[in-house]
Amino acid sequence: MKLLLVLGTLSLVAALAAAAVIRWRTLHRSGQMLELRPPATETLEPEAWVVFFRSLYGIARPWWKRWLIGQPSVSFEFWSDRAQIHVRCWFPSDLEALVSTHFRSALPGIELAPVDAPEVLTEPATRSRLGLWRDPLHPLESGRVDALRGILGALAATETGVVQLVVSPDVGWQQRALRQLDQ
Questions:
Q1: Confidence (pTM)
Q2: Partners of 90 in beta bridges
Q3: H helices then E strands: how many in the chain?
Q4: Pair 118, 35: CB distance under 8 Å
């Protein structure tokens, strides 16, 4: 009986150590950064970007994989350089095919150029966590879909600056919305 208890404890410790190593490896995993260059002839359709963000649920991992190695995220960087705004996107390397396909479906003709050496911010940055402006029970089509317009307008008015937006699928929103509806 003692032997089984010791073996069970050792196997649990080994499993937890393996999980920690796997999680550390994925947190320090390489990613890919692309510069997004929209086609000159196309107009921006905000509804297509709503579909793009909804389709990012394709990167959501099952619960056991989320627990083990975490949930992937996609990072958008809006760089201002002399009133010109450049958009970049960073994502884990294993999501390249999925994310680039979704970009091309949201904006046909978009040019995705790899960024070799990304710039590093030399001045202090401010971080803020933004919440959704909408009630989670309502669809994204209702209301405004161009919430970044004010932020990008202010960014374009500056000499240099950067705004970073990190998007990760929220897989628990439906359960929270149903709980709120029941209350």
A1: 0.67
A2: 33, 75
A3: 6, 5
A4: no
